[in-house]
Amino acid sequence: MTMPTTQCPWRMQVHHIQQETPDVWTLSLFCHDHYSYQAGQYALVSIRNSADTLRAYTISSTPGVSPFITLTIRRIDEGVGSQWLTGEVKRGDYIWLSDAQGDFICEDKTTDRFLLLAAGCGVTPIMSMRRWLAKNRPQADVQVIYNVRSPKDVIFAEEWKNYPVTLVAEVTNQPGFIEGRLTREILAAVPDIASRTVMTCGPAPYMDAVEENVKALGVTQFFKEKFFTPVAEAATSGLKFTTLTPAREFYSPVGTTLLEALESNKVPVNAACRAGVCGCCKTRVVSGEYTVNSTMTLTEREIAEGYVLACSCHPQGDLVLA
Ligand code: FES
């Protein structure tokens, strides 16, 4: 079986698949070589073992603790990656992963006081780090608050029984859950919150609300995972974007990346790493001013032709796109 792309050189075999919640599955993968990663990192997966469809998934296992490399994936109706991985891939199949990537990790934090905040499937790096801290910093004071829609949506429900965790569910009549959403009052009840390193992962609006609330409570050490799709409203003024095929005009506020402008206007674009690494979001700019902070996967010729990585492209004025 040949490597589909040099970006995903790690061949892994599916050892078993476990359903976690009604719409989330964990794939346990066996790698014949040593796959190096840190708790909290993600990998790109070559979808259908093809070169041009890559998707980013957090590695939910923990190095030095978990017997397998695991990916924990929510099935999304229109998600080509999640539909394949949770619906078609089966035990014994091979899939291809990139090197582990990302800097949403706890290993480099020197503190021993953490507050880990997760919502929905954003719990995957949080659980990975929680296990790592239990094994490598058993003295650490680690508080976890995990938000879900309802009790049946708690991912790793059995394993959470091993760790102190505050569960918050939007809809619940079960004991053991706070009903509603994460509030500043719930956060304020965390002992000495201002002195903690706070790490959060979940949908972008959730992470934005967490950031605002914990900073208002005096937190200075704050980290959030960055590869989740923002759900910004389409703008009606600001920078103008024109696509030639199909012909279309749309707007985005000054300061957004080209990827954010495309996504908030529902213009089809692939994105996986959101960090200028995977090359998924390659887009051609025909005219206009912009700056870039990564051209990592582009050739000299592509750059000369106006190709950019949309996630790393910062429009400085109106743009025309191919
Ligand atoms: S999403 Fe990976 S390079 Fe842009």
From TrEMBL:
<keyword id="KW-0285">Flavoprotein</keyword>
<dbReference type="InterPro" id="IPR050415">
    <property type="entry name" value="MRET"/>
</dbReference>
<dbReference type="GO" id="GO:0016491">
    <property type="term" value="F:oxidoreductase activity"/>
</dbReference>
<keyword id="KW-0560">Oxidoreductase</keyword>
<dbReference type="Pfam" id="PF00111">
    <property type="entry name" value="Fer2"/>
</dbReference>
<feature type="domain" description="2Fe-2S ferredoxin-type">
    <location>
        <begin position="239"/>
        <end position="322"/>
    </location>
</feature>
<dbReference type="Pfam" id="PF00175">
    <property type="entry name" value="NAD_binding_1"/>
</dbReference>
<keyword id="KW-0001">2Fe-2S</keyword>
<keyword id="KW-0274">FAD</keyword>
<dbReference type="InterPro" id="IPR008333">
    <property type="entry name" value="Cbr1-like_FAD-bd_dom"/>
</dbReference>
<protein>
    <submittedName>
        <fullName>NADH oxidoreductase</fullName>
        <ecNumber>1.6.-.-</ecNumber>
    </submittedName>
</protein>
<keyword id="KW-0408">Iron</keyword>
<dbReference type="InterPro" id="IPR001433">
    <property type="entry name" value="OxRdtase_FAD/NAD-bd"/>
</dbReference>
<dbReference type="InterPro" id="IPR036010">
    <property type="entry name" value="2Fe-2S_ferredoxin-like_sf"/>
</dbReference>
<dbReference type="GO" id="GO:0051537">
    <property type="term" value="F:2 iron, 2 sulfur cluster binding"/>
</dbReference>
<keyword id="KW-0479">Metal-binding</keyword>
<dbReference type="InterPro" id="IPR017938">
    <property type="entry name" value="Riboflavin_synthase-like_b-brl"/>
</dbReference>
<comment type="similarity">
    <text>In the N-terminal section; belongs to the FAD-binding oxidoreductase type 6 family.</text>
</comment>
<dbReference type="GO" id="GO:0046872">
    <property type="term" value="F:metal ion binding"/>
</dbReference>
<keyword id="KW-0411">Iron-sulfur</keyword>
<dbReference type="InterPro" id="IPR039261">
    <property type="entry name" value="FNR_nucleotide-bd"/>
</dbReference>
<dbReference type="InterPro" id="IPR017927">
    <property type="entry name" value="FAD-bd_FR_type"/>
</dbReference>
<feature type="domain" description="FAD-binding FR-type">
    <location>
        <begin position="7"/>
        <end position="107"/>
    </location>
</feature>
<dbReference type="InterPro" id="IPR001041">
    <property type="entry name" value="2Fe-2S_ferredoxin-type"/>
</dbReference>
<dbReference type="Pfam" id="PF00970">
    <property type="entry name" value="FAD_binding_6"/>
</dbReference>
<dbReference type="InterPro" id="IPR012675">
    <property type="entry name" value="Beta-grasp_dom_sf"/>
</dbReference>
